[in-house]
């Protein structure tokens, strides 16, 4: 349940951005996670609900985008999406690959007023 | 109402402190390995076997991460090896600020190798970079050959994978080929070391792999 640590960082970033821009209330928080991370969306929402009470984000909406893994084959150059379980190149079968997308953990934006 | 773009990594602070840990270790020529596994997979036994194999040639310290207690660090200290206990107080993984504090307690100039025993967990430690040179995971035979399919993340990010308690395979109906095949699919490049930490079986192949990297890091200093 490391989502609590992650969500603490979400709140730190969101509140700092809200305050430094002169706003008092956060109405929406937008996050992006790659599917190759060990983040569970349910646990994230649970952590969000636990932490939001009494904060400027108490009434905020939480929007989560999940990115599928994407790799480039370092032998034939092909770029492809894949699942969590195999990074193998579908074109040439090589396993020498570079993950381009899938390990993101990012706060994209907030809406504040 | 305003839309504020942030585009910020959530683990930025953790990753920054981890990079600082890495820089301190590099300046001192110390190799740090993060050992991850579920509770009971044999992390402490593997560390003890590793210490026995390498202590003659390398100066070793252990950072013990547990939710509570100092049972493991006492075990390590009883072997005459420096050990720092981190109690996470409920947190399911170590973070880089905890490692920074532990490094502050150790005399880095008098060390070649630091072994981190992460909190017993196959999920959470995966997402946290601590400044280590290598992440190594242990799976033990009684946990079952299907674990790579259930916990793919940790198998993917590990630089080496230790299969421990191989001496118990006949009792547990462990399908070695199925395990190796799913592990290869997730992580085609990491070596898999099949060991029994308590009997010493196979341990030398793992410790040779580790010693080679410790040596390289130490040499880079001179």
| CATH class designation of the domain at 3-68 and 102-112 in chain A | Alpha Beta
Measure the end-to-end span of chain B. Answer: 58 Å
CATH class of chain B: Alpha Beta
**Overall pLDDT metric of chain A:** 93
Question: What is the overall shape of chain B?
Answer: globular
Order of strands in the sheet with the most strands of chain B? 4-3-5-2-6-7-8
Uncertain spans of chain A: none
Strand content of the residues of chain B, in percent? Answer: 15-25%
CATH architecture of chain B, please? 3-Layer(aba) Sandwich
Q: Which range best describes the helical content of chain B: under 10%, 10-25%, 25-40%, 40-55%, 55-70% or over 70%?
A: 40-55%
Give the helices and strands of chain B as they follow along the chain. Answer: EHEHEHEHEEHHEHHEH
Number of helices of chain A: 2
- Major beta sheet of chain A, specifics? 3 strands, mixed
**Strand order in the largest sheet of chain A:** 2-1-6
Helix content class of chain A: 25-40%
Total DSSP helices of chain B: 9
The CATH topology annotation of the domain at 3-68 and 102-112 in chain A reads as hypothetical protein PF0899 fold
Largest interface pair: A-B, 35 and 33 residues
Structural class of chain A: alpha+beta
Work out the number of β strands of chain A.
Answer: 6
Strand content of chain A: 25-35%
